[in-house]
Amino acid sequence: GETLSSMGKGETLSSMGKGETLSSMGKGETLSSMGKGETLSSMGKGETLSSMGKGETLSSMGKGETLSSMGKGETLSSMGRVKKLFRKIKERFPRWEG
C-alpha cells in the first residue's frame, strides 16, 4: 500500500502496491502503470505511449509519430519529443525498459 508523491512543479508520483500507478501531471502529462496490464500514457500534446505487457506496444500519436516495440519482433522508432519523454520515464522508473 505504498504511496510516494512529489508536488514540486505540479508533479505527482504514486505507487499503489500491486495495482501500481505512477503519474506525472506536470505539463499535462500522465504516466501510469497498472501492474500486469502495464499501461504508460502521456496526454501532453496529444501523445500516447502505452505498454501492454507481453504484447509490448508503445505508441505516440502526437504528430503522426509512432513508437512501437513488439516484444521479440522488436521494432522501435522515435520522433523527437517522444525520445525525450521516454528518457524521463526511464530516469524516474528505472525498472521500465524501453
Automatic annotation (TrEMBL):
Naturally occurring in which organism (per UniProt): Acaulospora morrowiae
Chain segments carrying region Disordered: 1-81
Protein name: 17427_t:CDS:1
